[in-house]
Amino acid sequence: MRDTRRTRLTLGILIGTALILITVDHRAAHGSLLAPVRDVASTVFGKFEGATSAVTAPIAGFFKTLHDAPGAERVITDLRKENASLKAELSAQRLDKARVAKLDRMLGLAGLGRYRVVPAQVVARRATPGFEDAVEIDAGSNDGVRADMTVLSGEGLVGRVVYAGPSTSTVVLLTDPALSAGARLEGGNELGVVSGLGQAGGSDNLIRFRLLDDAVPVAVGRRIVSFGSQRSAPYVAGVPIGVIERVENTPGELTRIAYARPFADFSSIDVVGVVTQAPKRDPRDSVLPPVPQPAKPPAPRPAKPSTEVWPPVEARPLGPDRRAGRGAGRERESARSEHEPEPEASPAVARTAPPANPQRRAREHPPVAAHEHPLANARQNAPADTRKNARQSAAADARKKALADARGDTADGKHRRQDRRA
C-alpha cells in the first residue's frame, strides 16, 4: 500500500470516528445506541474465540508440559524419596515397639528370678568353629560380659557366651548339638541333661531331654527348668527351658529320653539378656510362666417347659341322647355336692395329679343347653332362695326315685330266686 495523502486522510477519519463512538458509548452508559451492535459483535466473536481456544488449548498444553517436564520429574523424585523415608521410619517405629515389648518381658523374667542382666540385641548369625547355631550380640567385655555366662530371653533359656570381645560377643544357642545343660522336672528333683538336635529338631527346634533315672515317670506337658552349674557358670538355676511333647520308650537302657519344645523362639530371636550375677537362692519354679487353663465348656441351656397335653385327646362330638344323659348325671352330681362335703385331697395325690385336660373335660362334661335343663325355668324366673329350695327338692326327689328303683330291682331279684327254688 502506498503512503499517499488519501490513505493518511482515510486512516485519520477512521481513528476519529472510533474515538467519537467510544466517547459517545461511554457517556451514554445504559442507554447506549451502540448496545445492540456490541452484543451482536460479542456473540459472533465469542463463538469464534471459543472454537479457536478448543483447537489451540491441547497444543498449548503439550508445549507447556514439555517446558515443565524437568521440574515435574524433580518433584516426583523428591516425593518418592520422602515416601521411602516415611516407610522406613514407620517400620523402625514398629520394630522399636516390638523390641521394647521383648525387652520388657526379658527384664520381667530377670526380675522374677533376681538375675542381674545386661540387655543386648542380636546383630547377626555367624559360624563358629565347633558349633552350628551361634549368634553375635552387641554387648561385650566393656559392658561386663564374660565367657561362660548364661544368656536368656523373655521366654526362657537361649544359650551361653563362648567368646566375649570388647563390644560384641558370640552366643551358642541351646539348639546346637554340641551344647548340653543340666535340667530338672518342674515340681521335683528329677535330674537330666538337655542337648540340642540342630536341624533334626525340625521347625519347632525340639531339644532332647535325657533323664538320669529310668524309673522316673515322665508325662507329656511337664515343664523343664535349668538345674544350674557350679558357681552358676555357665548356667544359672531356675531358668525355664521348655515343655515335654514326646516321650521315647527305651527298654533296657539306664536313662529315659524325652523331646521338649523350648520356650524361647530361636527362629526370631532378637532381644536377649546376659546374666552377669546369679541370685543368692535358687528360684526353683517361680520363674516359669503360669500354666494355661483349659477352656470351660459352655453351660447347657435350660429346657423350655412344654405346653403340649399328654396324652393327646381328641374331642369327639356327642349325640343328643348322650348329651341328655350327661346332663342328668351332672344334675345329680351337683345336688350331691350341695349336701355332702367334698373330701380333701391327699397332699401326695395333689402333688402327683396330672394337669387338667380341657379337651377331655369338655368331652366328659359337655355344656347343656338352657331348654334341656330341668331347672332352667326355675333358675331364670325365681329368686335366689326359691332356686335353692327348688334344687334341694329336686335332689331329694332324685334320691327317692333312685332308692325306689334299687328296692324294685332288689324285690324283683328276690322273687326270681324264690321262683327258681320252687
Fold and architecture overview:
The protein has seven helices and twelve strands. The chain is an alpha+beta fold and 422 residues long. The strands form two sheets. Strands 1-2-5-4-3-12 form a six-stranded antiparallel β-barrel. Strand 1 and strand 2 form a beta hairpin. Helix 3 crosses helix 7. The protein is flat and about 160 Å long.
Give structural attributes.
7 helices; 12 strands; single chain; six-stranded antiparallel barrel; 422 residues; alpha+beta
Output the strand order for the largest sheet. Answer: 1-2-5-4-3-12
Would you count the extended β strands for me? 12
Helical segment count: 7
Question: What share of residues is helical?
Answer: 40-55%
Percent strand: 15-25%
Secondary structure elements and pairings:
Layout: H1 5-28, H2 35-113, E1 116-125, E2 134-137, E3 150-152, E4 157-164, E5 169-173, E6 180-185, E7 191-196, E8 207-211, E9 223-226, E10 240-248, E11 256-262, E12 271-277, H3 320-339, H4 347-352, H5 358-364, H6 376-381, H7 384-421
Antiparallel strand pairs: 1-2, 1-12, 2-5, 3-4, 3-12, 4-5, 6-7, 6-9, 7-8, 8-11, 9-10, 10-11
